[in-house]
Amino acid sequence: MEKIKILLADDEKDIRDIMAKKIAQEGYTVITAKDGQDAWEKIQSEDPDVVLLDLNMPKMDGFEVLQKLRQTPPSKKWQPVVIISARTELQDMQRGFSLEADHYLTKPCNINDILKAIKLMLNLIPQHKSHLEIQSEENKSAKKDDTKKAS
To answer: Which end of the chain is more exposed for a tag (fewer CB within 10 A), N or C?
Structure first.
């Protein structure tokens, strides 16, 4: 069985290295990204199972990465996103959730909180997959009905 891949995007090298080490100790494969552009490229090339995303990053901020991810039709699977940010303002959290972030942690945060968030996101994947399959079947039925009405 292939190991679960976690993408960790944070521009602060020390934080990125410490978090990556702790997450890897739990048995996950950790892919790191040093900025938003790097994160976006690795989301596309590495196809991670969960994305941990800082907001304040150079080249492309976390909001931009999240927006691009959610606007791109999923090629293989839905990828849950956990924002991990020093931004504690309600408007930042609301913006993250409006862009379809799945969880929001504020820095500094305990590694155990991050690990719990990863497990929570992994538990959501099968539920989300089932939801998408139901939607797809409903869309197919609606198209068949439209075709019958048109003929």
So the answer is: N
